[in-house]
Amino acid sequence: xxxxxxxxxxxxxxxxxxxxxxxxxxxxxxxxxxxxxxxxxxxxxxxxxxxxxxxxxxxxxxxxxxxxxxxxxxxxxxxxxxxxxxxxxxxxxxxxxxxxxxxxxxxxxxxxxxxxxxxxxxxxxxxxxxxxxxxxxxxxxxxxxxxxxxxxxxxxxxxxxxxxxxxxxxxxxxxxxxxxxxxxxxxxxxxxxxxxxxxxxxxxxxxxxxxxxxxxxxxxxxxxxxxxxxxxxxxxxxxxxxxxxxxxxxxxxxxxxxxxx
Length: 261
Ligand SMILES: Nc1ncnc2c1ncn2[C@@H]1O[C@H](COP(=O)(O)OP(=O)(O)O)[C@@H](O)[C@H]1O
Ligand SMILES: [Mg+2]
Fold this sequence. Notes:
Elements: H1 2-37, E1 39-48, E2 60-68, E3 72-76, H2 83-90, E4 98-103, E5 106-107, H3 113-119, E6 121-124, H4 136-146, H5 154-164, H6 181-192, E7 199-203, H7 211-228, E8 231-236, H8 239-244, E9 247-250
Parallel strand pairs: 3-8, 3-9, 6-7, 7-8
Antiparallel strand pairs: 1-2, 1-4, 4-5
Helix pairs in contact: 4-5, 4-6, 5-6
The structure holds adenosine-5'-diphosphate (ADP) and magnesium ion (MG).
């Protein structure tokens, strides 16, 4: 009798062991899937409420997006849908109220965010944010210095970065206030590349530019993603941007019935 029972238990265990093996295998395959997808940044159920907002007044609610290296993304949404807030979370300037953001396998909660901002991500703004009375190359060198980069010939490096965004060497010594909007945005992109970040995030980077110049700037971002394996994330409501990117994520107003997907 006792034997029979033992026998029965061991069979049950066998089934359990097999089930566990199967689950482990499935997990391994899933993990492989994720790594083969090359995800560099993952937003997991992120919600954000500003400290002065009312208890239920969220700027973002339950947003989950994945971003891969080598791809260009648009985050699209009408005014007030939380695009800038989301970029603040991605760039580590604000912390999620709920949920989390994983960069390169690590939660931003456990990272040195100054180091993250100074080495892993480059930020490009709609209004370029350059110092107008300094030259193009001085603006780029300033960023190298601010980030503590140890480069022998900084000017040479700045010129190299400017060439990458289609600006000839002669532009290096020109004051920013003597450059067109498109040229200024090129300098700003070159500046964001000075420490070779894995990700570039841009808040309406072509919002002040005409369509032709916008197309040229988008080509630069596209090249950075497809040829240099960077992850490029652009917040926008421009149709031209959305036509250029590989993936579009839509943000909806929190109060709309349909939550951001
Ligand atoms: N500093 C702040 N304090 C309180 N509420 C804010 C602040 N900044 C933005 N918001 C609110 O958060 C929501 C999302 O804003 P924002 O991220 O700027 O949207 P978008 O960039 O898509 O226009 C809006 O309702 C806005 O009023
Ligand atoms: Mg905004």
